[in-house]
Amino acid sequence: MSFRASVLTLYPEMFPGPLGLSLAGKAMARGDWTLDTRQIRDFGLGRHRAVDDTPAGGGAGMVLRADVLASAIDAASPPGDDRPRLLMSPRGAPLRQGFVRELAGGPGVVVVCGRFEGVDERVIEARRLLEVSVGDYVLSGGEIAAMALLDAVVRLIPGVMGNAESGETESFEHGLLEHPHYTRPAEWEGRSIPAVLTSGDHGAIARWRRGEAERLTAERRPDLVQPRQK
Ligand code: SAH
User: Fold this and answer.
1) Cβ of residue 90 lying under 6 Å from some atom of ligand 1
2) Atom of ligand 1 nearest to the CA of 133
C-alpha cells in the first residue's frame, strides 16, 4: 500500500504545486504516494460557508472554527485511520529529519493547514492534532509549511530515491551537517578540488568527509553538537 497524504486547506488549488514535479511528482505518478487535498470550506456553515469567526476575548484577526475543522478532519480521517494528524503551526515542535523519517515509514499523514490567526484550541485537543513548525518565523498559512513537510517525507518513502544510499549520508541523518561536494572541472577559477578526493584512497576520503562534517557542524550548528536542551 502506498503512502497516503491528506491535506486540509482553504487553498486546495495550491496543491500539488511543487509536489507534482521532480522527485515527488514522479513518485506520485508511479503510485508510491497519493495526495488527497480537501477544501475546509466544503464544511463551512450557512449560505456563505463560513469557516472562521472573531477571537473570543477580542483582538485582531479571525480564528478557524473548531466545529468546521472537526467535520473536515472527520471526513478526511474517519475512525480507524491510523495516520498521524498534524497541524502546521509556528507553536509546534520544530520539524526534524528524525520525525520526517518516522513519518515516511508509516501509512501516511493527515495535515491541517491553518490560516488567519490560527485554529480554535479545542479542535487541537479533541482531534489530537500534533503541532509541527517549519521554523521560527510566521507564514501566512500552513500550505507552504505542509509542502515542505511532504517534500521532505516523500523523498524518504521506501523506493522513491534512486540511490538508496543518498538518504543516509545527508545532513542531520547522523546529527551532522553534510561534508562539502565537488565535481568536474578539476580546476575552476584557480580553485582545485581537495587532493584527497581524487586520491582514490576510500578510507582517507571517508575520514576527510567525516572531519569536514564535524567542522561545519561545530561552526554553523553548535546546537546539533551539544545535547539539546529540553
Ligand atoms: N497567530 C499565529 C500565527 C498564525 S499564521 C501565531 O502567532 O502563532 C497562520 C497559519 O500559518 C498558522 O495557523 C499555521 O498553520 C501556518 N504557519 C505559520 N507559520 C508557520 C510555521 N513557522 N510553521 C508551520 N506553520 C506555520
Assistant:
1) yes
2) 23
100 marked as binding residue: no
Indicate the CATH number for domain 3-154: 3.40.1280.10
Is 88 touching ligand 1 by the criterion CB < 6 Å? yes
Is the pTM for the entire model greater than 0.85? yes
Q: What is the pLDDT of residues 84-134, one digit of tens each?
A: 999 999 999 999 999 999 999 999 999 999 999 999 999 999 999 999 999
Dump the DSSP string for 33-58: EEEEEEEGGGG-BTTTTB-EEPPTT-
User: Is any ligand 1 atom within 6 A of the Cβ of residue 108?
Assistant: no
Report the C-alpha gap between 141 and 143 in whole angstroms. Answer: 6
First to last CA, the chain: 37
Report how far apart, in Å, the C-alpha atoms of 173 and of each of 90, 99, 114, 217 are: 24, 11, 29, 12
Does CATH number 1.10.1270.20 belong to domain 169-229?
yes
